[in-house]
Amino acid sequence: MKLLNSVMAAAMVAVFALPGMADEPTIVVEDSYARSSMKMAKTGAAFMIIKNLGDVDDRVVAARSDISKRVELHTHVETTENGQTYMKMGIMEGGFPIPAHGQTVLKRGGMHVMFMGLNRPLVHGENVHVTLVLEKAGEVEIDVPVDLNRKPAEGGKMMHKHGDGKMMKKHGEHSN
Fold this sequence. Notes:
The protein has one helix and twelve strands, in the order αββββββββββββ. By secondary structure, the protein is mainly beta. It has a single domain, classed as PCu(A)C copper chaperone (Immunoglobulin-like). The strands form two sheets. Strands 1, 2, 4, 5, 7, 8, 11 and 12 form an eight-stranded mixed beta sheet that branches. It is globular.
């Protein structure tokens, strides 16, 4: 009888815990890699696919890493100025949205985690430890492999401009 009561109590706890757990997003990071443009670069970036297997939308609101002095969430926005169309990189206000049962792709020429003021060079084959801070899921820690040889999946010849507008390159030639 005592065993039956224990089993029943455990089953009731599990049943009442399930609704709360259903609201918790489950975040999975796949296909991550980091790179910089050259050996002595002051900046680098990380790219990845962030999947939300949960029933609730979530959002990456910050990221941390000891690889650099600052870590920022960046994106590129198409801008036209004086008839020239270019991509301007800057901080992604509000972070990266991750829809429930969906994914967000961080890629070159789009959203990415930006390492500002590298403390050391990104070395091909090594890992960079990154903590993603999500609005609802909390912190997700990942080790991102450095791949300096990886080519972008897409790459047009659109002009690309960094935030201050002083540096323009053809998009396919951009280093991050």
